[in-house]
Write a structure and sequence with these properties.
The protein has a domain of 36 residues. The chain contains no helices and 3 strands. 0% of the residues lie in helices and 20% in strands. By secondary structure, the chain is mostly beta strands. The protein has a 3-stranded antiparallel beta sheet with strand order 2-1-3, with no helix packed on it.
């Protein structure tokens, strides 16, 4: 289920909302359904301080070398 960003047409409140199926979104502040869906983006890459280093940070220790064959035993 996608998370959408909205701006309320009545009170200009900006918010994000997890939308389930055909549920109609409403402003959590004034409860109107006059909403404008915003174009949202998602983060890719490693520009933030919490991002992993370019090499992926290494193995978790339970599976060995992540460059080898097979898949992680934690999945």
């Amino acid at each position: 289920m996608p998370i959408f960003e909205y701006v309320c047409g009545e009170c200009n409140h900006r918010f994000e909302l997890l939308v389930y199926g055909s549920t109609q979104a409403a402003c959590p502040k004034c409860n109107t359904t006059k909403l404008e869906k915003q174009i949202s983006s998602f983060g890719v890459g490693g520009t933030d301080s919490w991002a992993l280093p370019g090499n992926g940070g290494g193995a978790c220790g339970s599976c060995g070398d992540p460059r080898g064959p097979g898949s992680c035993s934690m999945n």
